[in-house]
Amino acid sequence: VQWVLHNWDDDNCVKILKKCREAVLPSYGRNEKSGKVILIDMVVGYNQTKGGGDFSQVQLCSDLLMMCLLNGKERTETELNNLLMAAGFSGYKIVRAIGPRSIIEAYP
């Protein structure tokens, strides 16, 4: 899921994430491992470059844009955590990416 969650309000994000979680759970009765959901999105306040670049202004401007044009927003790690937990995920990991984006691995 790339740059989808920031387009939606919290309630719709939880619905989207619940469907994603269902899709990666193993089928009943099989001995398969669960998958994971990969999200590519901004995490406000999280610096993503290895060189230590600060993208906080880009993240905040994008947040304003999402609020003006859509019913969405860029989220902090705490807000992202709340969405993932409300959708039934057991945990997540944020991986640094290029520019203002992060890769979030969410585990069912």
TrEMBL record:
The keyword Glycoprotein does not apply. One of its GO terms (biological process) is methylation. It comes from the Eukaryota. Keywords: Methyltransferase, S-adenosyl-L-methionine, Transferase. Pfam families: Methyltransf_2. The keyword Ribosomal protein does not apply. Residues 2-90 form the O-methyltransferase C-terminal domain. GO terms for molecular function: O-methyltransferase activity. PANTHER family: O-METHYLTRANSFERASE. This is O-methyltransferase C-terminal domain-containing protein.
